[in-house]
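Supplementary notes for students who missed Thursday's class. We covered one full example, reproduced here. Read the sequence, then the structure, then the short commentary at the end.
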Amino acid sequence: MAKTSSTMLPLGTKAPGFTLIDTVTNLHYSLVKEKVEKGVVIMFICNHCPFVIHVNDELVRIANDYRTQGFTFIAISSNDVTKYPQDGPQRMRQVARENNYTFPYLYDETQEVAKAYHAACTPDFFVFNSELALIYRGQLDDSRPGNGIAVSGRDLRSALDAVLRNSSVSPNQKPSIGCNIKWK
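Structure (token representation):
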């Protein structure tokens, strides 16, 4: 299991716009057309990565806890499906249903969105405020497969809670660690 760290896109970066297919609904989903109330959490994930599988339940809990408070959640898979067919759209739809994803699970076939966000690993998390400026990037929490630390979502939850309190998100942010994005 190779470990890759996120590249830590500079804070303040504006969220690159995109339009991708939601593998669950087969409809186009566009970041620029969606209304963002408090902020948006963009998660680069995939179906087969043990790091993502390890945190899937917590991703769903966090989305359920915070979407009612004005946050939008979006998951994107950018892996090369020629070499990794288990990450293709049909399997994405199945994984979304099996895990009760309450957020769109988008397919980035060209990998242009992952490149625009400088995403490096799965999972890789980006939180943008209501103005779509980056306020958090990095890990969900300190838990990793096999390290014995319970999955809590602590780091991501702290960032979202800071937004809800109208306070600054701490700039001391740890990179996420996971499987590298499978580039073409």
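Commentary. The longest strand covers residues 71-77. The longest helix spans residues 50-67. If anything here is unclear, bring it to office hours.
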